[in-house]
Amino acid sequence: MDTHNPTLTIGAVAKRVGVNIDTIRFYEREGLLPEPVRRASGYRSYDEGAVRQLRFIRRAKDLGFTLEEIRDLLALSADRQRGVKAVKKRAQERLAAIDARIAELTRVRDGLEELIDACPGHGSPEQCPILRALSDAEDQA
User: CA–CA separation, 101 vs 105, rounded Å?
Assistant: First the structure.
C-alpha cells in the first residue's frame, strides 16, 4: 500500500468519522461524496480527502444545514473567488432560520406553560383548558 495515499475501507472511514456505512453510501448516492475508487475485489477504497469531506458534511449537519445547503457549501468551498463570502452569507441565513425557530419554539413553550398553569389537573375533561385549547385551536386561528 502506498504510504503517501493510504486507502481506507468504508468501515475504517465510517469509524474515523463517526457515521455508519449506510450513511456514507447515502452521501455517495446524493452526490455529496464522490464515488470511491474500487479495488480489484470490488470493495470501495477511500483516501483522507473522503474522511475530511465526510467530517465537513457531518459538522454542517450538526449546525442544521440541509443536504442541499451542504451541497452548496461544498461547491463554494472550492470557489477561490467568491466562496468565503457566499459561505458566510449561507451561515448567516442558517443563523436567521435558527433564530426564527427559537422564537417560534419560545412562543409555543410560553403558550403551553400558560395552559399547564391554568389546568387544575382534576375535574371533567370539558373543563380542562389544555383539552379546550386543542379542541378549539381551529376556531382561534
Answer: 6
Q: Give the CATH architecture of domain 1-63.
A: Orthogonal Bundle (1.10)
How many other CB atoms sit within 10 Å of the CB of residue 13? 22
- Tell me the backbone φ, ψ of residue 72, rounded to 5 degrees: -65, -45
pLDDT tens-digit map of 8-53: 999 999 999 999 999 999 999 999 998 888 888 888 899 999 999 9
The answer to whether 26 touches 58, Cβ cutoff 8 Å, is no
Q: Three-state DSSP class for 37? A: strand
Distance of alpha carbon 70 from alpha carbon 107, whole angstroms: 29
Spatial neighbors of 134 by CB under 8 A, at least 6 apart, are none
What pLDDT is stored for residue 1 in this prediction?
Answer: 43
Question: What is each CA distance from 34 to 30, 114, 126, in whole angstroms?
Answer: 9, 51, 59
Rounded to an integer, the average pLDDT of 136-141 is 56
DSSP 110-130: HHHHHHHHH--S-S-GGG-HH
